[in-house]
TrEMBL record:
The protein's name in its UniProt record: glutathione transferase
The keyword Cell membrane is annotated on this UniProt entry: no
Annotated ranges, domain GST N-terminal: 1-37, 386-466
Similarity-based family: Belongs to the GST superfamily. Sigma family.
Gene3D superfamilies noted in UniProt: 1.20.1050.10, 1.20.1050.130, Glutaredoxin
PANTHER family assigned to the protein according to its UniProt record, in alphabetical order: GLUTATHIONE S-TRANSFERASE, HEMATOPOIETIC PROSTAGLANDIN D SYNTHASE
GO molecular function: glutathione transferase activity
EC number: 2.5.1.18
UniProt keyword annotation of Metal-binding present: no
Organism of this sequence: Cinara cedri
Amino acid sequence: MYLPFEHNPVLIINEEIRITQSLAICRYLSSLSNLNGNNDWEAYLIDSYVESMYDLKREFIKYDDAAAKAKMELKNQFTDIQLPNFLKKFNNIVAKNNNNNLFVNNKVTWADIYFSKIVESITMIMNIDLYQYTHLPLITKKVYAYELERLQSHETFELTDETKFEVLSNEQNEDVTKPIRFLLNDMQRSFNESFYDDFAWDFNLQKSRQYANTPVLIIDYEIKINQSPVICRFLAAHSSLKVNNDWEAYLIDSHVDSMLDLRREIIKIIKINDENDEKIALKSKERFLQTQLPNFLKKFNNIVAFNGNYFVNGKFTWADVFFAGIINFLHHFTEFDASLKGYENLSTLVKRVRNIDLSLQHNYDYKTNGEITIIEAFELTRTTKIEILSINAITADMPQPIKYLLNSLVFSFDETIYDNKELWNDSITKGMPFGQTLVFIINKQMRITQPIAICRYLASLSTLNGANDWEAYLIDSLVESMNDLKREFIKHISKDDDKTSMKLAQEFIEIQLPCFLNKFHNIVAHNNEFFVNGKLTWADVYFAELVNHIALCTGDDKYHT
């Protein structure tokens, strides 16, 4: 790619005009979006402050680029002298701006945005507490509220023929980006894609979004949506792979959540390989390939065999596409045989996904195998017998949001709660699909799993799943981020070694938890004390139960408030 003066980033206009120098680009774009001040003097003030922020960035780059021997000395000099000096001055500037907690006047400008993205990144990387500077964290909150206002000014959202798409991705998450490309192609929509290596993503891009997960789908240069299954669900609703009913949607969600469970196990192996010696890494990889992986693949193979070589109801859905992406990921990082030898039904499915020519075929008409009995739709009624099986353990899935939704629907149910020790009882775990610790049993026969998918299905029967596809997306995205918080919580409190466990728990309570809660708080503050458009949804229910769960496990009652 041609880069003027070998600089990046580069802004390409109409596929022809290339402009460079990030500050100049920001200044130009902000002048088009009312973010460059109300007059020439305000524009000067913004320029002046941003240049000082850029000076700070240069000092940071000096440290980051230093040779190993000089690095520690430069780090101490930067964190003890230069960084505090800059931050104190920035804090004083903001303090003198009439209690607005912004750099210039009383509204967000690109100086505030630049500060929140660049300086906050530096303080996070250097592990500096920005909250010791009273006014600076408030800038980040106001910028985030501004971004939310731009995002959630769309109470609903409709895709049109003119809608522009861009996909941001990186190598590590290539597998979950492929289904997004597939669905955009299926919709016959062109899109741009920016592909970053892991360092470029981590340092330059992740702070520009609500949470640090790739891929990201950008719609009309403004609306950014993340969480790959949520993006797929949103796009599928506008493609030929649109589901027929809520039950079919649940089945897809449930299978995809199980695929993501498999993916998390693969990521664990990657991390063990990066952080440990070769013997430990090899032993963990062998255990995964010989025990955990076959367990997943056998169950997936049985599901696909039962459904005419598809995951759901004998027809092509985005769950099939998602699975093919996971298999690519598995092959890339573990050298597992991507031909899926021994799992013939899965092999057939993956080949079919790879061979579909989306440029020629957009209307799928795959028929159900006549010999198979498939539940194409299912309707819960008040006469349906419902039982919930759950495990009383810190790391177990939470049954409370499901119980809340059942009560809101006025559905009666029975509940069986097993002790944590019983988790290893074969007679119990045999009845738990994919070894899940929460199972929803319908009419004493049909067992369904994956709590998020169950919640979404139950919410779709009530008024708690949003009024339209856009609200449903907002709910999904928030709940996925809440689940990220839950995983961080489990990761930090489930160690056997007491010293390690205490250290990790403290790290979670002091760093990860406040980071998530601040972001969630800003969203709720913007939405009249709810998560989505000022009304109760199942995202609110899920969050309330999650925070209650964390409060009980940490023994800290403040999280109830």
